[in-house]
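Hypothesis: this fold can be encoded by more than one sequence.
Test: take the structure tokens below, design a sequence, compare later.
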């Protein structure tokens, strides 16, 4: 499994960690942010296709910020998938 750490921008969370194995998302963890909601996101995404998860989360907005912790996770997933040459 490849593990990733991402520094989100414009949100309350200060770090996002996750793993990808065989295109599937594992162990999504956020540092700071809305703890209950972000734990739920991690549970819901466990074992899901990483590219599909990014598609679902991309563009989600938090209080007019133009981004959200979920949107930042989508950006992190896009970046990780691009580095490994996974095409959507």
């Amino acid at each position: 499994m490849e593990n990733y750490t991402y520094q989100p921008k414009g949100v309350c969370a200060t770090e996002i960690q996750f793993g990808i194995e065989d295109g599937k998302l594992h162990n999504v963890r956020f540092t700071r942010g809305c703890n209950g909601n972000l734990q739920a996101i991690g549970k819901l995404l466990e074992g899901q296709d990483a590219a599909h998860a990014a598609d679902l989360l991309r563009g989600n907005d938090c209080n007019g910020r133009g981004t959200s912790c979920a949107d930042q996770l989508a950006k992190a997933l896009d970046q990780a998938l691009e580095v490994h040459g996974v095409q959507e």
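The two ends are 19 Å apart (CA to CA). The first strand starts at residue 2 and ends at 6.
Hypothesis status: open.
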